[in-house]
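To assess whether the prediction recovers the assembly geometry, we first specified each molecular entity separately, as shown.
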Amino acid sequence: MLTRLFSDPSLLPDVQKYSGWADSEDEDSKIKHEDHDTQDDTADSELREDSRTQSEHNEDDEDDELDEEDDGEDTEGDRPKKRGPKKRKMTPARVERSKVRRVKANTRERTRMHDLNSALDNLRKVVPCYSKTQKLSKIETLRLAKNYIWALSEILRSGKRPDLVAYVQTLCKGLSQPTTNLVAGCLQLNSRNFLTEQQCQDGGRYGSGSFPMHSYPYQCARLTSPHCQPGSGSNSHPLRTHGYSSTYDSMYGGSGSPEYDSPEYEGPISPPLCVNGNFSLKHQGSASPENEKGYHYSMHYSGLPGPRPTGPSNLVFGSSGARSGIHSENVLPYHDMHLHHERAPVYDELNAFFHN
DNA sequence: TAGGCCATCTGGTCCT
DNA sequence: AGGACCAGATGGCCTA
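The predicted structure of the complete assembly is given in tokenized form:
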């Protein structure tokens, strides 16, 4: 309950500052630890005491003058007298300072974790599967990102157009089954979007003329995604008759598809970005929900033409601005942000590679 | 209900 | 000295 309230970064600091219940939770935590300390007055609590900064000790001198030393009580009954610095009593002033220090540290830690989560959200948006409604978990996001980087690196290294199956397999390597399904569904949706909309309405650089996506054999492979409806647009494509509908069987441990080894499928290979539907429909002037949907699932990667922004002012992913309370992720909405995105060199290279 | 995921608190350690 | 970072602990929420 409180946890959820705390999860609102915009509310939290003020809430903590001005509300009693937030402090009470902090109090609960402290009580928990203080209980621990009292339960066993041990090295643990000693360590904590010993680790206190020198300045605190100096500050506490005044307190020490007041209530330092009652050595008798310090021995805690039968226990042998401890070595090292004498344990100091937690005077009310010390307790108060400790509380303030802890509250400040907690706030910083929350902010830090919020920044981390924001960065993860940004990462979710640039990996090949992005959905606002079905977010990848943190660990899966990192795994997918790693696989994505690996896949792109391989493309650059080999200088070959990627095979979609291998590409998808690389992307899904090590991912959980649900995430694999999700990724596959995203890829499928984007491919379909491209086929049914992009191909028809876009005569531009990504159209069928410059890029033979329409002839790609894996466009509507059978997927677990509900987006792939039998009989839907791409399903009627002539190439659907080639029996490639089990594209993902092999990766899911299904029937296995010897067809994949056939040279027949090494033909027209689309770039991974194209496969993933990186023909950002947002830029096509259409505001239809379908396009919007496709946009969310895309990698926002198509708006590559144009001069590369230079200089730190264009760094959307720059410093977090945590101190000012403004996170970089909040500066621009993503659909604006990626227009100003400082593209990594790999983007340009890939773009050039696939469009020459 | 168990397990996964997550947010938060906390103390320790390292760095500037 | 203070902040950043880290990992462990804890508890809530959600889903199969």
